[in-house]
TrEMBL record:
It is a multi-pass membrane protein. This is Multifunctional fusion protein. Part of the Sec protein translocase complex. Interacts with the SecYEG preprotein conducting channel. SecDF uses the proton motive force (PMF) to complete protein translocation after the ATP-dependent function of SecA. Residues 225-394, 524-707 form the Protein export membrane protein SecD/SecF C-terminal domain. The gene is secD. PANTHER family: PROTEIN TRANSLOCASE SUBUNIT SECD (PTHR30081:SF1), PROTEIN-EXPORT MEMBRANE PROTEIN SEC (PTHR30081). Belongs to the SecD/SecF family. SecD subfamily. Belongs to the SecD/SecF family. SecF subfamily. Keywords: Cell membrane, Membrane, Protein transport, Translocation, Transmembrane, Transmembrane helix, Transport. Its main location: membrane. The chain crosses the membrane at residues 249-267, 274-293, 299-320, 341-362, 374-401, 422-442, 550-567, 574-596, 602-623, 655-673, 679-704.
Length: 714
């Protein structure tokens, strides 16, 4: 790159960065498109709509309620992956959808849950809505006229597929009516037998009509008929302080990471710092573009991804220093450094991207939301590391920063005998995991294995109408201590109902005497009219089905990662070692939850998924270097020497990536609100554990599998 081109690249980088800063801060045009303030926020940050339904059937079974809640969860995910559906009392279901403020519009779009039947012209019921697995609006184009044909596409389960095939076979030329709450909403004519479990209702008058019918069919597939009891617009569970402190923590974390990179890597570190700022802005703009709902754990996840985004740069710069130490000039070292770092970066990120795709496809609720932000972070971090950092670094070189002293050099270190100490490392790991299991057993004997939060255990929801309108900060400062005195538990959630003096207080399950004590305390301290206090038992917001979806997703993702590593490294033992290391990190963090009694809530799933992504990425870098050194293995070198050499060569990368990622989360832990600290602390444990595992465990595991568990090759 010539000097003039280098100057142009740096000027363009500055202008583009300034443009993105302006867009994120102010927005473009009258609609202020792209501004941070338009990012969709979750219930905890911005509030939303709360709708309560009640079963028309007076004594629904637990199975019917559970099935209805799960299906409703799937419906409302079209509005937001962070929407929550949970049981209230014996026959009520509460839906909370973040980022919206028009309850009537949601009710109209969601539809009135009721009975759905498919009937012949003679009134014979073929099947009911419970056999419908999906209903989607769409359109096709007539090849002759070019006109749009708006349609509704239906898919049935196996039982519904068989029943519908029999009915359509017997009713060709006749109509099959779709009857909702006693009213016929559509009566298409059967043109031919439909045996594949999928049918299309054609010639809808508009896309809106098709979407309305699809919505009616979706909501009618519930096991229970529901009626609306109430709908409210609720305020944020956390105040503006939570957002401001998290953003402040993010800014400080980025600044500290940039300073660290500049001090440690000099000019390349400065290039990485600029690329990191661009990466952060790209994440914010992309969140807006794809309308991804952002919650408080989501903010923590993005800040974590900022730390992880540095990893690719660290790998590249370590390679450049090695090439300079080997005698290459700076230009040649940069080219070779990027080339040699490519495989580790691509393999590590693709492995994590596979996990994100599986989590999105098979997960539900917050798991899908996490998968979206994870995939977004991976793609953008690869782009900034391999494209932006490279352009800026070449531009610095072109404008005259060519001296080796600006880049540093990494001399060959004497290999540390990690393999020789493997038994010690294995013993430490086993001890850490056993400590966790011991504490789980002790706590289980006393009552509960973990300190489950309301998200997992459910509790009591108390609706209180105060005499004055208090902000959420005032509620937390004045009301929470009174509630905590009664419940003897810090696990309390509060929400305001917009436009009223009502506050919803969610606590652990309260018995009758505790409810009376709480009512008296509210009356004495705030002069509340006791007749304006209502309480209901509520189920967990993370249902059993959602937990199973999360567990199933992680299992499938782990299997897919194992297969990918096996194929890429041409050795199943690499994949097996990576999976064992991943399980090790997860068990240690779960043990941390048991020992420290951190509340296990909705953020628990996000935390575990973050550890999975971080752990596998760190492991791939070590394996990539082992694979490379095996090809260059000298006659006098043993496998023992190769593994030690590989781990030592990547040691600075492992330490620096752990430090930069830890910095961002540590700042969040220090400055964040209590719920963020509950998320940040186990993440810090996981980051340290991931760094330890990648250096001390993964290479040793592969070595043991290679030498001890198979016959030695001649």
């Amino acid at each position: 790159m010539k000097k003039s081109r280098g100057i142009i690249v740096l000027i363009l980088a500055a202008l583009i960065t300034a443009g993105m800063v302006f867009t994120a801060a102010v927005g473009i045009g009258d609609s202020e498109s792209g501004a941070i303030k338009h990012i969709k926020l979750g219930l905890d940050l911005a509030g939303g709509v709360s709708i309560t339904y009640e079963s028309v059937e007076e004594n629904p079974t637990a199975e019917q309620m559970s099935d209805t809640i799960y299906k409703l969860q799937k419906r409302v995910e079209t509005y937001s992956t962070e929407a929550q559906v949970y049981q209230e009392g014996d026959r009520r279901i509460n839906i909370e959808i973040p980022g919206v403020s028009d309850a009537n519009a949601i009710l109209e779009e969601l539809g009135k849950p009721g009975s759905l039947l498919f009937q012949t012209q003679d009134g014979e019921v073929i099947l009911d809505g419970s056999h419908v697995t999906s209903a989607k609006a769409g359109n096709t184009t007539d090849k002759l006229t070019g006109n749009n044909n708006y349609v509704v596409q239906l898919t049935f389960d196996e039982e519904g597929k068989e029943k519908f095939a029999e009915a359509t076979q017997a009713n060709i030329g006749n109509r099959i009516a779709i009857v909702y709450d006693g009213n016929t909403v559509s009566a298409p004519t059967v043109k031919s037998a439909i045996t594949n479990g999928e049918c299309v209702i054609e010639n809808m008058e508009s896309y809106e009509a098709a979407e309305s019918l699809a919505s009616t069919i979706r909501i009618g597939s519930l096991q229970l008929e529901l009626k609306e009891i109430r709908s409210n617009v609720v305020g944020a569970q956390l105040g503006e302080e939570a957002i401001s402190t998290s953003l402040k923590a993010g800014a400080i974390g980025i600044a500290l990471v940039v300073i660290f990179m500049v001090i440690f890597y000099l000019i390349p570190g400065l290039a990485a710092g600029l690329a990191l700022v661009i990466y952060t802005l790209l994440v914010l703009l992309t969140l807006n573009a794809f309308e991804i709902t952002l919650t408080l754990p989501g903010i923590a996840g993005i800040i974590l991804s900022i730390g992880m985004a540095v990893d690719a740069n660290v790998i590249i710069f370590a390679r450049i220093r090695e090439e300079i130490a080997a005698g290459r000039n700076v230009k040649s070292a940069m080219k070779e450094g990027f080339r040699k770092a490519m495989s580790a970066i691509v393999d590590g990120n693709i492995t994590t991207l596979i996990a994100a795709a599986v989590l999105y496809l098979f997960g539900s609720g917050s798991v899908r939301g996490f998968a979206q932000t994870l995939a977004l972070g991976i793609v953008l971090s690869m782009f900034t590391a391999l494209v932006i950092t490279r352009l800026i670094l070449n531009a610095f070189y072109a404008v005259g920063l060519k001296d080796k002293k600006f880049f540093g050099q990494q001399k060959e270190r004497k290999a540390i005998n990690f393999i020789g100490k493997r038994n010690l490392f294995f013993a430490i790991s086993i001890a850490l995991i056993l400590i966790g299991f011991v504490f789980m057993g002790v706590h289980s004997a006393k009552g509960t294995t973990f300190n489950y939060s309301l998200d997992f255990m459910g509790g009591t929801s108390t609706n209180v109408t105060f005499n004055e309108d208090m902000s959420i900060q005032e509620v937390d400062a004045n009301v929470k201590p009174v509630v905590q005195e009664i419940t003897k538990d810090a696990n309390i959630q509060t929400q305001k109902v917009a436009g009223t003096n009502q506050v919803i207080i969610k606590t652990r399950e309260l018995n009758l005497s505790e409810r009376e004590a709480l009512n008296n305390a509210l009356k004495e301290n705030f002069g509340v009219d006791e007749s304006l206090i209502t309480a209901e038992s509520i189920s967990s917001t993370v249902s059993k089905e959602m937990r199973w979806d999360a567990f199933k997703s992680v299992l499938i993702a782990t299997l897919c990662m194992l297969i990918y590593i096996w194929i890429r490294f041409n050795d199943l033992r690499f994949g097996a070692s990576a999976v064992i290391a991943l399980i090790h990190d997860v068990l240690v963090v779960i043990g941390c939850y048991a020992v420290v009694r951190i509340p296990v809530g909705g953020t628990f799933i996000a935390c575990m998924l973050t550890i999975v992504g971080y752990s596998i990425n760190a492991t791939i870098v070590i394996f990539d270097r082992i694979r490379e050194n095996l090809k260059l293995m000298k006659n006098k070198e043993s496998l023992h020497d190769v593994v030690n050499k590989s781990v030592t060569q990547t040691l600075s990368r492992s330490i620096n990536t752990t430090v930069t990622t830890f910095i961002t989360i540590a700042v969040l832990f220090i400055l964040g609100v209590s719920s963020i600290r509950e998320f940040a602390f186990p993440l810090m444990v996981g980051i340290i554990c991931g760094g330890y595992t990648s250096v001390c465990i993964t290479g040793a595991l592969w070595y043991v599998m290679k030498t001890k568990l198979v016959k030695k090759e001649k």
